[in-house]
Amino acid sequence: MKRADFLKGALSLALFTQAKQVWAQEEGQFGPETDLPPIDGDPANTRPHDPHKGAVTNLPIPRYVSLKGNEGNARRGPGLTHRIDWVFTKSGMPLRITAEHEHWRRVEDNEGMGGWVHYALLSGVRTVLVTTDMAQFRSTPDPAGQVVYQAEMAVVGRLLECNAIWCRVNVDGEKGWTEKASLWGIDPDEILG
Q1: Which H/E stretch holds residue 26?
Q2: Residue range 18-42: average pLDDT?
Q3: Assessment of whether the complete model's pTM goes beyond 0.85
Q4: So what's the architecture of 49-125 in CATH?
Q5: Domain boundaries along the sequence of the chain
Q6: How far is CA 132 from CA 49, 66, 147, 181, in A?
Q7: Thinking of the domain 128-184, which architecture would CATH place it in?
């Protein structure tokens, strides 16, 4: 085999391997736990990554955020070239971030629907979604507390604080305590003060 033929073959193999890695990452087939080397060859990208922390922000994964505007496109992959699979249409809607890639966050709603959303469409303001019909909000975190208002299923409220069982929520200016089990947007063991 001639040296020129060998070099052509090696170059073709290298280009094919890199193209395959780009395709696999864009299609979301490989996550941070794969053994694929970084495409850009940056040695800083080869350090071990904690799967419970975001690769970009180093914040906990999963974590909750909210939709900043009235609409947010959820795409099949992290980039504008990927098709839109889902559109979130409720301002303030709580979403769970499950992955990060550059300026994109993979999010899901309470039904597990979602995709990749640009980070500019998300807010760190914590909100919750009422998951029970006519949830009762009380003046104190106690089943005997006076009911100050009720909220229908799918109402969004701003999360103010939570203990082990109860959360204080602001819905349209009304503040009250309801059981954490009747909300989506906070983990069962999460405490907010």
Answers
A1: helix 3-26
A2: 39
A3: no
A4: Roll (2.30)
A5: 3-45, 49-125, 128-184
A6: 38, 20, 16, 9
A7: Roll (2.30)
